[in-house]
Amino acid sequence: MRNYVVVVGSSTAYPLVTAVAERFARGSSFKSPKVESTGSGGGLKQFCAGNGARTPDIVMTSRRMKRSEFERCRANGAGRIAELKIGYDGIVVVDALEGPGLRLSATELYLALAKQVPDPGGARLLVANPYTNWHQIADHLPDQVIRILGPPPTSGTRDRLAEVGMQAGCMALPLVAGLPDDRRKSVCQAVREDGVYVESGENDRLMVRKLVDDPAAVGILGFNFLDRNRDKIQAASIEGIYPTFEAIESDRYLLTRPLFLYVKVDHAGIVPGLVEFVAEFVAEGTWGDEGYLIDKGLIPMPADERSRWSRNADLHGSLCDCPKCPCSNGSCSDACCGPEMGP
């Protein structure tokens, strides 16, 4: 078996987990955990491939595990899984400081990103997205070509952007709101493929550099990268709210999202340092109101929420064969855990 912890997953959570891994390596006798940015979807695919040394111990995600992913884990014998919510982050729309800055409604964001939109000519039908300039979408937006650098389909950021941001803007359009549920979901969440939206991989640092080099471009990334690069990039407001620590913490900002770790409980007794690494994550000095992860952009949960979720960090405790979630009765039945996941 390996003698170090392996973590894969979200590029958004990567700086946070890396910071904990570095602190853990300095302050303990265990080897430094190996942390790899693969995107949430890519990380979950590796994590759910099975059990044992060839598979990761932990996957970090910028969205909750989907029901289909949990079933894949179960089918492949990944064993017992502990679910640990670690805090909050926001998805931000940014451009270079030299750029115009944007004030977007959810619908304007949808019209810039969507594969299909209601016909701008007024006909009651959906057409391939014709918008190539921000000013075509709304008079108050700049007369500037739409060029968006964003995450690939394997990214939890992409999933959350579609499920929350695009969905909210889409549902405000009467033509789309009247569609059958299955059709509406595909229309609301499909990202355009005409070259206006450019998939930029899982390297958010590289995206920041691209934005600086091209002030006409707009990027979509996590709040923690904005927070650490305010000397280079600026955020757009969404529905009149700018992404700030306070706006995300209070859930006033539309594109707020939770961050999770999923841990293979069966690895706890055989991978040195796994139990201790997870314990480091839930220490108040790490994820708390004054924890060092705040400097990395983490928005901490309220104290009572941290207390509930920290119980899942006890990998030697009594866990069931499903991602464990905080329940009012302390149980871990499918009624508690399973249905709360996404589809």
Q: Features of this protein?
A:
343 residues, alpha/beta, D-Maltodextrin-Binding Protein, domain 2, 2 domains, 9-stranded mixed β-sheet, two-stranded parallel sheet, 15 helices, 34% helix, 18% strand, globular
Explain what you see.
- The chain has 343 residues and is α/β, with parallel strands linked by helices.
- It folds into two domains: 6-89 and 258-340, Periplasmic binding protein-like II (D-Maltodextrin-Binding Protein, domain 2), CATH 3.40.190.10; 90-256, D-Maltodextrin-Binding Protein, domain 2 (3-Layer(aba) Sandwich), CATH 3.40.190.
- The chain has 15 helices and 13 strands.
- The chain has helices at 14-27, 40-47, 67-75, 106-113, 134-137, 156-171, 174-177, 181-189, 204-213, 223-227, 245-249, 274-281, 284-287, 303-310, 334-337; strands at residues 6-9, 34-37, 58-61, 81-96, 103-104, 116-118, 126-128, 148-150, 197-199, 218-222, 233-235, 237-238, 256-264.
- Strands 1, 2, 3, 4, 8, 9, 10, 11 and 13 form a nine-stranded mixed β-sheet that branches. It has a two-stranded parallel sheet with strand order 5-12.
- Helix 4 crosses helix 6 and helix 6 crosses helix 8.
- The longest helix has 16 residues, at 156-171.
- The two termini are 34 Å apart.
- The model is unreliable at 318-343 (pLDDT under 50).
